Amino acid sequence: xxxxxxxxxxxxxxxxxxxxxxxxxxxxxxxxxxxxxxxxxxxxxxxxxxxxxxxxxxxxxxxxxxxxxxxxxxxxxxxxxxxxxxxxxxxxxxxxxxxxxxxxxxxxxxxxxxxxxxxxxxxxxxxxxxxxxxxxxxxxxxxxxxxxxxxxxxxxxxxxxxxxxxxxxxxxxxxxxxxxxxxxxxxxxxxxxxxxxxxxxxxxxxxxxxxxxxxxxxxxxxxxxxxxxxxxxxxxxxxxxxxxxx
Length: 246
Description:
Elements: H1 5-18, E1 24-31, E2 38-43, E3 62-68, E4 72-78, E5 82-83, E6 89-90, E7 113-118, E8 126-131, E9 140-144, E10 154-156, E11 169-172, E12 175-179, H2 182-186, H3 189-192, H4 207-215, E13 231-233, E14 237-242
Parallel strand pairs: 1-14
Antiparallel strand pairs: 1-3, 2-4, 4-7, 5-6, 7-8, 8-13, 9-10, 9-14, 11-12
């Protein structure tokens, strides 16, 4: 039987769609906000940091990050940044010590943080979440591309700055640009889940954590908010959208 080259090409394409030939994962970062953002990236201990830890992303623009298997780290957005030709400057929120390329530096809170561990030495599963433990600056979501078995959406899709309690507000030029976590604002063990409150039995959600949870039920509202906020999945590509459509 003679098989046409056209039919062979179709079989070839189907084979590569069904078989994952990559050794790592892809993270697609999308800026759906009306203004530019400057994503910051921090790799976990011993992990590489893509893009030197920071870059500019115009409104409507996206970038694809290739990360190795078992990569872990966090990604957040910085707002209203201004950098000189040497990559030095400042941002209204999420700033990493005045550097465009964070290179191992974390973002200054408040900032909405996407956290992930894409497999471990004992588990092939990927774990990811959106955390408000460091406060909030922009809405964000993370989900697998094309879906997956048991996969969920981690998100805080609402602008918490609009309903941020006055005690937690961060203002620049009269505008609320961020909402502090209760830990950052109150600086007490009860709100920070430290000291005698450093375990799930003693650290309970506070009034502020319950407010965050009511508005963003798919995000971490305090340190031990695992049951409803941590997602498990196994996919090769994920998309992180800042200012996701609601």
